[in-house]
Amino acid sequence: MADSPNCDLKSLSPLQLFERVTEQGEKVRALKAGKAPKDEIDAAVRTLLSLKLSYKTTTGQDYQAGLPPKDLVLINNGTAKEEDEDLVDPWNVQTSNAKGVDYDKLIVRFGSSKIDTDLINRIERAIGQKPHHFLRRGIFFSHRDMDQVLDAYENKKPFYLYTGRGPSSQAMHVGHLIPFMFTKWLQEVFDVPLVIQLTDDEKYLWKDMTVEKAYEYARENAKDIIACGFNINKTFIFSDLDYLGTSAGFYKNIVKIQKHVTFNQVKGIFGFTDSDCIGKISFPAIQAAPSFSSSFPQIFNGKENIQCLIPCAIDQDPYFRMTRDVAPRIGHPKPALLHSVFFPALQGAQTKMSASDPNSSIFLTDTPKQIKTKINKHAFSGGRDTIEEHRKYGGNCDVDVSFMYLTFFLEDDDRLEQLKQAYTSGELLTGELKKVLIETMQPLVAAHQERRKQVTDEIVKQFMTPRKLAFEF
Q1: What is the CA radius of gyration of the chain?
Q2: Are the C-beta atoms of residues 329 and 75 closer than 8 Å to each other?
Q3: Which of 107, 162, 253, 378 could cross-link 346 (Cys pair, CB 3.0–4.6 Å)?
Q4: CB proximity list for 216: less than 8 A, separation 6 or greater
Q5: Is domain 14-59 in CATH 1.10.10.60, yes or no?
């Protein structure tokens, strides 16, 4: 019996509707290929047509296979309009709101699911310990199919982690640590393999740098990543410029993805134009390929059905929406995702930081004096214009960058809440809040620098050598 459209289609996001149409289309093709009875095929086709109609009514666009909808937000009359308040794509993040991007709207636009209390409690039950403060505080706020990952874990089925870094500069900033800090915690509590992709090829294609410089940045960034404390027996770090030439499994998956994504589709997803080089157009398949276990035969013993979980900032989601659309068509499970918010620039949460602006963030190479100067001089304040006004009306933690940074790096929940209450009431002044942040960041960065000094070129080589990890598959 064919699926019938659910009565709750109106509650689905454009992307969820797109996925429903795609799945039903695959079912129709399977029924035809299997020479199913005519009435069963006809019923499945009617369901498909009904879903396509719902999709067009919701988005104002005809369904096109493999081309997810543009990021849209529904308005009251059932039509759709482009959301122009926040610009979020893999290369740009901009908002006019001093509080930063509206993540609730972004969840609707991207069609992901909110990480709610129930999911956090389920993670706590699964791992038998308190969830990371990034989860408790909503820093990782959105997901795709995390429930499936937990189902697998509870049923003793394997999964693996995949995250990455685009090495655009020699020095990383503290915002770059966020996905790696969280990924390290995930790896430890679930005890799973991890692959880390360094997209030096991407940076060569997008930036004004040589191939040699991109590769050099990748190896330098690998030292900072290793300094986060990853287990060498459970972690494989790879440069695209290196690994693509040595792994037949990796390249085969890239080619399969490329065959199933058209130029029109990548233009629609990523905004490429006719004047972009063909390297940019083909790159999304390279970022997608680590989502499939057969890209790492040395780790997974050639198995193709091991699900992947990807912790990343939500601006990377377009790559993996494309990946999730392609996955079932080439015989792989869809990757699951955990999305983080953006780490704000010191000057305010309207944009994410730029590695090319030394004053936009605290870099992992900064001295204690530089950290103090940057925070005191550049950290956007939520305080009042005068001490008298601040004492009377209090500060605004929603826009104060020092408090935002403490939300990321101060692990003590009680201490953070005390600071929030004191600043909001006017008891704590901006300079005093900045002092707390300085005292938090100086030892954190200094400790990272000490660990990085211990990372030799030989250790980097070991992490980046394709090999079997400490797992059996």
Answers
A1: 23
A2: no
A3: 378
A4: 170
A5: no
pLDDT of amino acid 94: 66
Spatial separation of the C-alpha atoms in residues 135 and 132, rounded to whole Å: 5
- Amino acid occupying residue 417: E
- Measured CA to CA, the distance from residue 83 to residue 81 in angstroms comes to 6
Question: Global pTM?
Answer: 0.81
Place of tokens 């030439």: 245
Q: At 65, is the secondary structure helix, strand, or coil? A: coil
Give CA separation, 244 vs 164, 234, 296, 333, 467, in Å. Answer: 15, 21, 11, 22, 15
Strands of the sheet with 93-95, listed across from one edge: 86-88, 93-95, 348-352, 344-345
Q: Is 366 exposed, middle or buried (0-12, 13-18, 19+ CB in 10 A)?
A: buried
pLDDT at residue 71 tops 50 = no
| Rounded Cα–Cα distance for residues 105 and 86 (Å) | 9
Q: How far apart are CA 116 and CA 137, in angstroms?
A: 11
Residues of the chain with CATH 3.40.50.620: 97-346
CATH topology of domain 97-346: Rossmann fold (3.40.50)
Measured distance CA(63)–CA(69) in Å, rounded: 8
Instruction: Give the residue range(s) of CATH 1.10.287.10 domains in the chain.
Output: 14-59
Q: Which residues contact 453 (CB under 8 A, 6 or more apart)?
A: none
pLDDT, tens only, 406-437: 999 999 999 999 999 999 999 999 999 999 99
